[in-house]
Write a structure and sequence with these properties.
Length: 282
Amino acid sequence: RAKADGRGAWRFFEPAMDARMQERRATEIALRDALEHRNFTLLYQPLLDVGTLRVSGFEALLRWRQPDGTLSLPATFIPLAEETGLIVQIGDWVLREACRAALAWPGQMSVAVNVSSVQFRQPRFVDQVRDALAESGLAPSRLELEVTETIMLQDSAVVVAQLNRLRALGVRIAMDDFGTGYSSLSYLRSFPFDTIKIDRSFVRDLDARGDARAIVGAIVGLGQSLGMRTTAEGVETEAELAGLRRVGCTDAQGFLFSHPIPPEDVPDFLASTASAFPAAAE
Ligand code: C2E
Ligand code: MG
Ligand code: MG
Ligand code: MG
């Protein structure tokens, strides 16, 4: 009993910092292991044209497969992957895998890939994108890279140069989670994104709250005058979709249409939407 107390006391005085660092180190090792053993997987969530309800493409969403078969969400491991720099290798795998998957989809359907600002900052990033396209044979116009406002925290000349190098490859660029981060509008002038993705927090209250409607309307208007598409994320209800249609939002994504699905379910999903919305069948 005394001995156990002694050990407990010793553990108690072990610096808390150390325990946290050990846990992070263990997660880092597990992340490396996951890369090596292909324990990451991508789910795909459809993007639809608001006017026709045609599927225009899918966004690739990363999952980490655990030994018990469950899939961990990005929020639980992306921050550590960014801190350790492992996001660069993980992101490279995501790019290759997403381009390869998109090649199996019909026509001009595009794939959207999320890019961490840590990954974006690497001078080699443009080469990674070029290699992923070349290896898969996917047309660059079918790839859309989603960046967030955090990339704008860097020297803007460097950011604009990097975005222009990506644009020169023929890929499209979307500003993800618009309005939630470092929301200076001036960067929309310095760099013409192809798409503005309106964060779910604004979409959610669209049918109930006038202020949400005003914000979404303003973003859509901004997109229209700057020649950018506007995609509403997190659309869950018919009322939200009706609201988006009213303000002229061009694209939508959310549980109303589909949760993120594994790649093997994509053909069935496309077949079922084609019959649900004949306009989509073409
Ligand atoms: P995001 O890019 O804004 O992706 C949209 C998130 O909203 C996804 O969460 C998606 O599952 C979720 N979502 C979609 N429709 C609805 C809806 O109707 N209602 C609700 N409540 N949620 C909806 P997820 O998959 O957990 O991803 C979270 C974030 O993790 C993404 O946000 C993105 O920033 C990041 N992420 C995902 N995959 C990658 C990746 O491959 N690389 C990097 N760097 N980040 C990624
Ligand atoms: Mg995204
Ligand atoms: Mg988003
Ligand atoms: Mg979001």
